[in-house]
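Ops channel
N.P.: pipeline sanity check, posting one input/output pair.
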């Protein structure tokens, strides 16, 4: 964004009375997830490498929280710790006040890659977790159909993953994650592998699902538009090691629509994210050897 455009934008921290009232209401809700002084180190041949340093934040009931940052900021490490798939070096994660010590059905997880069982139908994929937690087949089938209907795939309940598009596969993955009625849904760049049009549709699907059920969502993304479009608040991490740079309250009113992408509040928030993640003073110059492979008649620049 050019300097002239940037200076014309409103302060990203300025909120309309309606947005300010919504954040006041949000912060009065129970804390669903709390992260306290989280640290994570990995061993290497050169000694310990600190991936996360002193990460602390809270997510409230029914909040949609985004996490974003430059490469190497530990986004995926953080969400794996929240899911119980990694152990922190120190600090703690509390879900409704209870320590997270490993994976559990109280946290649903959706990954970027399609993690469906290819030998199971859509319905059987969604039933899988329900049956693993002790539900009878009839109960699991009834519950699965409700979630399949919610994501708009009732006509495809007997289809196999290879018969579905990428967006449809992720809708099945979301239905499967929600079928156990988790306390929080964790999403690691869930739409990153989709084309732009399908990605936009899936963002709208997620917002629609979130509006209709009691669900707290924490999602990782590298897409600035997606972060501003979906999130109530955005946790911005700096890299090497991953530390909290800022928690941004998104001033864009709800309900959200893609027409808001050009609104001043949206652009101001996106501009702030760009400044935090890619500061001009830290822009790296890429030095590559230039080898002319053929004779050309004119230069392109």
């Amino acid at each position: 964004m050019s300097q002239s455009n940037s200076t014309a934008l409103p302060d990203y921290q300025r909120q309309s009375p309606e947005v300010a009232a919504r954040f006041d209401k949000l912060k009065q809700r129970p804390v669903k997830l709390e992260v306290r002084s989280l640290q994570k180190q990995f061993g290497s041949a050169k000694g310990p490498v600190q991936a996360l340093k002193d990460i602390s934040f809270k997510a409230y009931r029914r909040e949609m929280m985004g996490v974003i940052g430059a490469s190497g900021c530990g986004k995926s490490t953080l969400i794996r710790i929240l899911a119980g798939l990694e152990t922190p070096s120190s600090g703690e994660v509390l879900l409704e006040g209870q320590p997270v010590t490993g994976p559990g059905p109280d946290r649903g997880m959706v990954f970027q890659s399609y993690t469906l069982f290819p030998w199971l139908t859509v319905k059987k994929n969604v039933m899988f977790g329900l049956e693993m937690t002790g539900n009878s087949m009839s109960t699991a089938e009834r519950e699965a159909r409700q979630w399949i209907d919610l994501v708009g795939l009732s006509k495809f309940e007997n289809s196999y993953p290879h018969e579905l598009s990428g967006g449809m596969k992720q809708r099945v993955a979301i239905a499967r994650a929600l079928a156990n009625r988790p306390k929080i849904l964790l999403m690691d760049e869930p739409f990153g592998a989709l084309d732009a049009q399908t990605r936009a549709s899936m963002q709208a699907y997620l917002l629609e699902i979130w509006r209709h059920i009691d669900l707290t969502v924490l999602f990782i993304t590298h897409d600035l538009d997606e972060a501003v479009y979906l999130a109530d608040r955005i946790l911005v991490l700096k890299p090497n090691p991953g530390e909290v740079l800022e928690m941004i309250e998104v001033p864009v009113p709800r309900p959200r629509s893609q027409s808001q992408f050009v609104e001043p509040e949206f652009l101001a928030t996106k501009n702030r994210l760009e400044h935090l993640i890619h500061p001009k003073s830290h822009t790296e110059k890429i030095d590559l050897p230039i080898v002319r492979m053929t004779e050309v008649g004119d230069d392109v620049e």
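N.P.: looks fine end to end. Residues 129 and 180 are 7 Å apart (CA to CA).
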